Amino acid sequence: MPESFHDAMQALFTGDADVLNPWLAAGERSRAGLSIYRNTVASARADALSGLVPTIQRLVGADWFRSAALAFAVEHPPQSPVLDDYGRDFPAWLAVFPPARPMAYLAPVARLDLAWSLAHRCEDAPALNASHLAGMAAPALFASRAVLHPSAQIFWFDWTVPSIWLSNRPDAETGNSVAWTDTAEGLLIARPGLVVTQRRLSRSEWMFLDACRHGRTLGQAATAALGADPYADLSQIFADLLSAGVFTRLEPEPPRP
């Protein structure tokens, strides 16, 4: 028997109606009420998930998505009353969900939807801009570490996941096709102000940002970017990333012992 009423209610949602017997009066009327409550909770979970992964719903259609959302809710019930956190396991679940297997792009697209949602809810922080660097000598700049904004998330895929995601967002034009090809693409999602933004990343830009998020100096990040493209314009890369609000501050490299 479940150890608590909460556990019993969760068991009810998986179809075990008898588990609530210790808390219910006898009679079919109570059973009917429980059925309504179970359906309401299941619907609320599906609605919460649709708000977190709207691109998935647009790609597969409302009926397909709702069936998947209800199946996911049974296997992965919320672990917190904060439904904004619900669905973090959805991409991994979707990757092995049998009806989704012919659409291999769904799981990584779901990751990007959840990243957008995370950026939207992220804490505020100032964005570093070019004026903060005025008068800073090049050696000091290259020896500094550029800290990513709390909302900034970078991705690199061996497939056209960013293109599919960008062209099928809720605010994108209708009728977009899905081109799932083995063309590598990068993406940045951030919310330096009040609006979440997204932009594609070249391989050299992604290498630059990847070095920064691992605590490397700007000089080391520049070296990484040049490793991806020896002809990369480092000044332009840094200026574009500053304009995107991807950094929040500079930190001097700690002295070596």
Can you tell me about this structure?
The structure is a single chain. The protein folds into 2 domains: 1-103, no CATH class; 124-257, Outer Surface Protein A, domain 3. It is built from 11 helices and 5 strands, in the order H-H-H-H-H-H-H-E-E-H-E-E-H-H-H-E. Helices cover 47% and strands 11% of the residues. It is mainly alpha-helical and 257 residues long. It has a 3-stranded antiparallel β-sheet with strand order 2-3-4. The protein has a two-stranded antiparallel sheet with strand order 1-5. The mean pLDDT is 86.
Layout of strands and helices, then pairs:
Elements lengths: L4 H9 L14 H25 L1 H7 L1 H14 L14 H7 L9 H16 L16 H5 L1 E5 L4 E5 L3 H7 L17 E6 L6 E5 L1 H11 L4 H11 L5 H10 L3 E6 L5
Helix pairs in contact: 2-4, 3-4, 3-6, 5-6, 6-8, 9-10
Residues in helices, as a percent range: 40-55%
Q: Could you tell me the strand content as a percent range? A: 5-15%
Query: What class, by secondary structure content?
Result: mainly alpha
Q: Output the CATH topology of the largest domain.
A: Outer Surface Protein A, domain 3
Helix count, per DSSP? Answer: 11
Q: What is the typical, i.e. mean, pLDDT?
A: 86
pLDDT < 50 stretches:
none
Properties at a glance:
Outer Surface Protein A, domain 3, 11 helices, 257 residues, elongated, two-stranded antiparallel ribbon, 2 domains, three-stranded antiparallel beta sheet, mainly alpha
